[in-house]
Amino acid sequence: MSQYKIEAGTGQYIGDREEQQDRVALFGSDKAPGFMMAVLADGMGGRTGGAMAAEQVIRTSRQLFDEFSPLTDDVDVMLHTIAFEAHTIIKLSGLTAEKEPHSTLVALVLTPSGTAHWAHAGDSRLYRYSGPAFAERTVDHSFVERLIKQGKLKKEEVARHRLSNILVNVLGSPQKEPFVTLGRHDGLKAGDAFLLCSDGLWQYFNKREIGAAITNYAPRQCSERLIEEARERAVGSNADNCTLAVIKLVAK
Fold first, then answer.
1. With 13 labelled, which of 55, 65, 201, 235 sits at a CA distance of 20 to 30 A?
2. Against a cut of 0.90, is the pTM above it?
3. Can you tell me the distance from the alpha carbon of 126 to that of 161, in angstroms, rounded to the nearest whole number?
4. In terms of pLDDT, which residue wins out, 149 or 141?
5. CA atoms of 196 and 66, how far apart (whole Å)
C-alpha cells in the first residue's frame, strides 16, 4: 500500500488568442484501480483545427486508459499507442477538413506500486520535483533544443532565437511520423510532485519558481497562482494559451 494520497488540479487561460486550443484532463480507470493518468495537449493548425487535434489526444488517452488492465497490459506500450493512434486520427481529420491540425502531447501515469511513467511529443513539458527540489524535466522536441544538443546554441540564448517556436516533432503531421520519448521514476514518496504544462506557461518561469509554487500551495491554488503570474508577465507580448496540471503526493 502506498504511503501517500494523490492531490491534483488543473488550470487554463486563453491568453490573447481567439480560441483556447490547449486541452488537459485527469482521470482514473475502473480496470486499473489505484492508477491515475494526467494528459495535456497543445493544439495547433488554425481556427478550430488546433482545438480538434488537442481534443483528439484527450479522447484517445481516455479511451485507451479505460481499456488498460495492469494484469495484461504494459503502461509504456499504452502511452506509445496513445500517441500514434491520436496522430493517425488527427492526420486523417486534417485531410478531410483540408487543414493541417497537429498537437503536442505530455502524459503521466502514476501506479499504486509507486512508479511514474510519462511520455511526450513536442514542447509541452513535464517537470518532476522531489519535495521542493527540482529533479528533472522533459526535453522539448524543438529546433533550438536540437541546436543545443549539437553544441551550436547555448541554453541562455534560446529565448532570443528567432526560431525558438519551431517544433521538430508533433502529432498529426502529414509529412513526418512522430516519435515519442518515454520516462520513468520508481520509488515515489510523499512530497513528490509533477507539473504538466504548455509553452504558454513554462516560458515565464524557471524551475525554482515552479518548485516554490508547488511546495507552498495545494494543486488548485498553485494552478491559479501560476496562471495569474504568467498573465502578468505576458502583458504586451501576445500571450499564448496557458494550460497546466499539478499533481502532488501527500502523506496520508
1. 65
2. yes
3. 23
4. 141
5. 21
CA 233 to mean position of chain CA atoms: 21
Q: How many CA atoms lie within 13 A of 50 on its CB side?
A: 17
The one-letter amino acid code at 104 reads T
Round to whole Å and give the CA distance between 143 and 126: 19
Checking if the pLDDT of 119 tops 90, the result is yes
Task: Supply the pLDDT for residue 148.
Answer: 77
- Residue length of the chain: 252
Q: What percent of the chain has pLDDT over 70?
A: 93
* R_g of the chain, CA atoms, integer Å: 17
Report how many domains make up the chain: 1
User: Cell digits for 91?
Assistant: 492526420
User: The CATH number of the domain where 117 resides is what?
Assistant: 3.60.40.10
DSSP element (H, E) containing 129 = strand 125-130
